[in-house]
Specification:
By secondary structure, the protein is mostly helical. The chain contains 10 helices and no strands. Mean pLDDT is 85; it is low at 6-19.
């Protein structure tokens, strides 16, 4: 059954390949991640539309049916690179943190999350307190407490994502420098909460 499904799937992909023009292979590698899916370079995107666009491209440029074609004139390394480019584009745009950093780069704003930090002492203390709450709940195997912390983190992340959308939408030429500083601070905060969410998720998984 599996072999028949694969046969018909590859046959379907082979037919789809006929619709791809040669220049499309190289063109897609020259596109930034928003352009890959035909999206505008804005922070707020529809994740379901992103998923559908991703699935469509993956079917169109999947390496399996190109690599198995003996008459293929396109370099196989390029085909693999295209698939990787599509995957990276999807993962980057799906995550609000990486999407925000990408937008900064597209705005010609050099930014390195590991080096460019300007987090306030108050925010750092807050992160330490949440971290301690997680460790205490994990030690006592308090699943309810961990789930409550998880919800609190998600709420804070959603607020930051909303603020990032507003910030990117209202960048002004007159005050661009300060606008980008504000965006960087929001990105740094979101990165901290991403780490805390990962920690609490692992802690819940360990208990379950």
């Amino acid at each position: 059954m599996w072999l028949w499904r694969k046969f018909y799937y590859l046959k379907y992909l082979s037919n789809k390949r006929l619709t791809i023009k040669n220049h499309e292979f190289q063109d897609i590698l020259n596109k930034n991640y928003f352009e890959v899916f035909g999206f505008k370079e804005i922070f707020l995107i529809n994740t379901e539309s992103l998923r559908q666009a991703y699935l469509k491209l993956q079917k169109q440029f999947h390496p399996d049916y190109f690599i198995s074609d003996k008459n293929l004139t396109i370099n196989k390394d390029i085909i693999i690179a295209i698939s990787a480019h599509i995957n990276n584009a999807y993962k980057t745009l799906l995550n609000p943190l990486s999407r925000a950093i990408l937008l900064l780069n597209l705005h010609d704003i050099a930014y390195n999350l590991n080096n460019d930090t300007s987090i306030s002492e108050t925010f750092i203390i807050e992160q330490m307190e949440i971290h301690e709450e997680i460790e205490e709940a994990k030690t006592t195997k308090n699943l309810v407490a961990l789930e409550n912390i998880e919800e609190k983190i998600k709420t804070k992340k959603n607020i930051i994502v909303d603020n990032l959308n507003i910030a990117f939408t209202h960048i002004s030429k007159q005050n661009a420098s300060n606008d980008y500083k504000g965006i960087k601070k929001l990105i740094e905060q979101l990165a901290f909460y991403d780490k805390l969410e990962h920690l609490v998720n692992n802690s819940i998984h360990d208990i379950i």
